[in-house]
Give the backbone structure.
Amino acid sequence: MEPKILPDCFICLFGREIQDGELQMATGETVAHLNYLWHRGNISRRLNDDGRYEYQSDRDARYVDAE
């Protein structure tokens, strides 16, 4: 899977295109979800040449709590 910038993740999270009036809410929700996954080690994050974060899933990540 190729790295994605934040707006490219909307369709995965919400299952539909985001309208202009929903953009702020969708951005906040997406950042929260991505930060959670990043802090758990499920995805990686890096700054691209444009200074925007790119996110990518980690195929070796643990997605279910072992406890």
Observations:
- The radius of gyration is 13 Å.
- The chain has two helices and three strands.
